[in-house]
Amino acid sequence: MAFITLDSQKLKTNFDYLYKLFKKKNIDWAVVTKMLSGNRLFLNELLKLDIKQVADSRVSNLKTIKSINPNVETIYIKPPAKRSISSIVKYADISLNTEIETIKRLSEEAQKQNKTHKVIIMIELGELREGVMGDDFMSFYERVFKLNNIKVVGVGTNLTCLYGVLPNQDKLIQLCLYEQLVESRFNQQISYVSGGTSVTIPLIFQNMLPKGINHFRVGETLFLGTDVYSDGKINEMQNDAFSLYSEIIELIEKPIVPNGDLGTNLEGHSLDFDEENIGKTSYRAIIDLGLLDADVNHLSLKDKSLKISGASSDVTVLDLGDNRNNYKVGDLVEFEMDYMGTLRIMNSNYIDKKVINEL
């Protein structure tokens, strides 16, 4: 079985780096755990760190988090669905919201559970994902403010995830102004201006983050050490806390070009081959990892002498060329993954999960 490893010491290095960065700027932050897909083994290792807030887009994952550490504050980070209201109030201390009818249901459920449910109101700043339109925000807040067992603790925005709209000073200053308008008009303190995600971190380095932004929601940069703004890496962080391994289950020298009439493969693709390779051979390895488990477009082989030739539902075929590194059946090949690659792998029940260098 293919397996993914989490190096806890490398994860801690990344956490400590971000912890110091945010503390220096007086910024609170929540660790976004959706990349871990609710895996108890990895969540348990993560929660050994000094984490105050955890955020996730699946209420079942928040339930698991609360079972590991009931004292950590949890945030549900997408607009709640009606069918999930009861569970969200039970397992999420805070939720991100954009619909007044949804918040009314949260209010009713919070009263039933004898709780005060906290909300962050999301504002549309150009990404066209979730968010109340700016012109409607003040009247929206006024209606929410009157609801029982609901406390507005923040305003926020989401950028980059859908269309790639990047955060900048102007957009984040707009978000800060909404918070100031609320405090001025309603004489109510708003704790969080949640304008930060992984993509916003480089603005801190450039001294371009408005002082009013005091809350971040960070997943990718913590786990992968990425500079999401420029699609690069942060030098002081570890980029390989996760590694993927798959076993070679067949290794045979075969023709490079297939033999027979070609139709479409299982993904509906028609493939072309260079006629110059007709009659040539190479060593081809089959590994126990397929499209059911992974998106090979988001994986890269650690050994750059190997190439991915293609994949089907259950296996992937590698071209080893002349097999200069003398691979054999039973050997493991290692992959590096980007964010989407890791997310897909973590969401597969058929990939084993292992912790190395435990805390």
From TrEMBL:
<dbReference type="Pfam" id="PF01168">
    <property type="entry name" value="Ala_racemase_N"/>
</dbReference>
<protein>
    <submittedName>
        <fullName>Alanine racemase</fullName>
        <ecNumber>5.1.1.1</ecNumber>
    </submittedName>
</protein>
<dbReference type="InterPro" id="IPR001608">
    <property type="entry name" value="Ala_racemase_N"/>
</dbReference>
<dbReference type="GO" id="GO:0008784">
    <property type="term" value="F:alanine racemase activity"/>
</dbReference>
<keyword id="KW-0663">Pyridoxal phosphate</keyword>
<dbReference type="InterPro" id="IPR000821">
    <property type="entry name" value="Ala_racemase"/>
</dbReference>
<dbReference type="InterPro" id="IPR029066">
    <property type="entry name" value="PLP-binding_barrel"/>
</dbReference>
<keyword id="KW-0413">Isomerase</keyword>
<feature type="domain" description="Alanine racemase N-terminal">
    <location>
        <begin position="7"/>
        <end position="224"/>
    </location>
</feature>
